[in-house]
Amino acid sequence: MEEVKMNRLTKRALLFLSLLLLAVFVLFSRFVYIQAAKEVQGTDLEELLNQRWSQTQTIEGKRGSIHDRNGDVLAEEISSYTIIAILDERFESYVEDPRETAQKLGQVLDMDPQQLEGMLTRDAVQVELGPKAKNISFEKKREVEKLELDGILFREDPRRYYPKQTFASHILGYTERDMSVARMGLESSLDDYLKEKNGQITYQKDGRNRRLVNAEEFIEEPENGKDVYLTLDSRIQMAIEQTMNQVQEEYDPERMMAIVANAKTGEILGMSNRPSFNPNQYEDIENYTNFNVTSSFEPGSTMKVFSLAAAIEEGVYNGEETFESGSYEVTDRTVRDHNQGRGWGEITYNEGVQRSSNVAFSKLALEKLGPESLYNYIDAFGFRDVTGIDLPNESPGLIAEQYTIDAATTAFGQGTAITPIQQIQAATAIANGGKMMTPFVIDRIVDSQKGEVVHENEPEIKGEPVSEETANQVLEILETVVTAEEGTGRPFAIEGFDVAGKTGTAQIPQEGGGYLAGHGNHIHSFLGMAPADDPEVVVYVAVDRPDLEGHQVGSEPVSLIFKQVMEQSLQYLNITPTEEDEVASVHENIELDDYEGENAQSVKEELAEQGLKVTLIGDGESVIRQSHAQGTELMYGEKVILMTDDENPEVPDVSNWSLRNIYLLEKVTGVDMEVEGTGFVTKQTPPPGGNLKGLNRMIIELSLTSGEEQREEEIETDNDSPDETEENEEDEEEFFMD
């Protein structure tokens, strides 16, 4: 019995031992597995241990900066500050007096004190104080600190900043202030280069979050964004921005475009649009479009530059050959010259270019070149395709070639739509001995941490649409557009430099067909190159629908921009004036004083020395009235009229005066001016030399011989049907500088 009992105990002991050994084996296997896999139920034990006994801190990288060609910063990352108010009285420093704090803060932050007081009395440990207390500058932070307010602290945050404000903004684009998203322009298209990569540092700590002495550190270095250097020159760009602001204020156009390019390389030295924006205040943006690369529109007569080049290259242009100007029948349409189809009789083709005759270029396109050859040159000059400029959202050209009339209208700039940057690219072929350069705005991209250039642009020849001989001949003819008495480009002459160029006045299509009508409802433009014999700079300016008075013409705002920008560009590029005496080199604007009561001759001599043209009314000793108010800024060569205290002043000789100066004379003398015609003065009644005293009215006759613009139809159906599209080409405007 006892033996049986012992056997049972032995079996039970063996079973228990087996179970124990099995449990030990399972546990040991589990320990081995855990040690090998370092994981329990999907939890990484090593990571958990590191989290409990390690501390990781982010090391922030820095977004790359954008610079101009000289290294001036255009976009950068800076420190900004957010105001935080501590409200919990358990803290040593907290807001004890919300009302007083709100009153003082409200003055500095330009916020409603009552609104601030409401924030400062919330049941919270701490609060932020709204948008005006976020991303404030260091200077604003110092202002708040000087208030010495209890409970007011600052959190430092990085933000994107554009130090030059409204400056090439459509090129730069912008990011959100915290740089989380790049929204447009180069900030967006180059985001992969500019964007930073944050690093981190990891170290061991004890249970009280204290860093262990001599503990190993693991550092992952941050990668700063790459720095971008542009071809823009800040001095030239600033000249564009300032003159555009001036034109915006005076003429309030719908939009404006301007581009300055290096004729030899294709580098964009300046580019701007209006409306523009301040990327630091991107909430207020009204226009997101860079019209210079995205907007295709009918160019008007600037297109004639390339039609002329095509005809010369094909050997079919004879500048001394004559044709009958005025109108030209093309199938069922009539092309008319811009002076209501009257033309100028039988003139040479060279004069046709100077006068911007649409008939001349229609004949060249259809009778000399032929449509097929014309369109071959349209392709060669790159008007169908994008230029490939390194800016986003570029548009191609839209070329009309369905009907015979399309070749005629394309030759003088209607029906076909192209972009400003396409015109700049094509113009480099004329300015650069036939070699057409691809425009570009990015010079290089640099990894500043490694000191390496990771991307660099070099000048690239896009094609050679014409020969060097043709390009030089085109320049010679275009120079006469600016210098000849009958040239439409006279308002764009720059003293000291020879300019070659072409004016343009494009119509604007309207919904339902046809074009906008009315004074100023056009896109007025100029494509110019200087110095004319070997251009270094190409400038394109377009002003869309300026608000013009009855006596004003579209060339006024365009020439105001072109002349100042071209002068500044030539000056900054150290290009020598054409004239040896250099008297008429680049000049600063001249600000007028109040001259009333001063000696008339002395004032005349003083202003003449500054480069102004002065007309004295009468032989009196003192000035009693002046044509421009004190503080007015005039360009070199503009006219100033001074009325003297002569009791019997003579009627001045106003031959060849512009309409603008006639109205200045009316202002100074008080004599009503009855004006007939447009352009420049050809006749006056009473004649010069008569007694001005007691005169109530003068009759002034003007003519178009100097290229005054007219607004009329160029293409119309033979039956003048209102259903047919009317196409006008008006070119180009009054030379308002004597």
Automatic annotation (TrEMBL):
Database matches in SMART domains: PASTA
UniProt-annotated location(s): Membrane
GO molecular function: penicillin binding; serine-type D-Ala-D-Ala carboxypeptidase activity
Residues that span the membrane, as ranges: none
Region called Disordered, residue ranges: 703-738
Protein name per the record: serine-type D-Ala-D-Ala carboxypeptidase
This enzyme's EC code(s): 3.4.16.4
Lineage: Bacteria, Bacillati, Bacillota, Bacilli, Bacillales
Domain spans labelled PASTA: 646-704
Reactions this protein catalyses: Preferential cleavage: (Ac)2-L-Lys-D-Ala-|-D-Ala. Also transpeptidation of peptidyl-alanyl moieties that are N-acyl substituents of D-alanine
Keywords linked to the UniProt accession: Membrane
Family membership: Belongs to the transpeptidase family.
Pathway named in the protein's UniProt entry: Cell wall biogenesis; peptidoglycan biosynthesis
Biased composition range(s): Acidic residues: 710-738
Principal subcellular localization: membrane
One BP annotation, GO: cell wall organization
GO CC terms of this entry: plasma membrane
